[in-house]
Amino acid sequence: MSKNEGAVIGDDSLDAPDAAGGVGDHLWLADSGRLWDMGPATTDTDADGVDDSLSRTDATGLTVFTDTDRDGRVDLITRVDTDGAVSSSTYDSATGEWSATRPGRLR
After folding, report:
1. Of 79, 78, 77, 66, whose CA–CA distance to 27 is shortest?
2. 4-20, pLDDT tens digit by residue?
3. Which of 3, 5, 82, 97 suits a disulfide with 39, CB 3.0-4.6 Å?
């Protein structure tokens, strides 16, 4: 974990810091009016050669944070619980709102 990981940077109307700030390759999560530094992307989930996601596990499952449009901000969160329940949310940068997508279940 980097020292900036999970740090609050400011409100989500700000641009994510660039490489000059030392964290240009990090993913940023807008939530509740704040912009959170999630740390560097570590996984290429769409096979385009660019790391776009990072994952976190806890006692109840796995969460994957993804930047689908390469702007540095997380805009898709996918959660897989230990019981097989799957849910995801997408971020609308125009409204600043997260919307839940249809939940499902792994079999």
Report:
1. 66
2. 444 444 444 445 454 44
3. 5
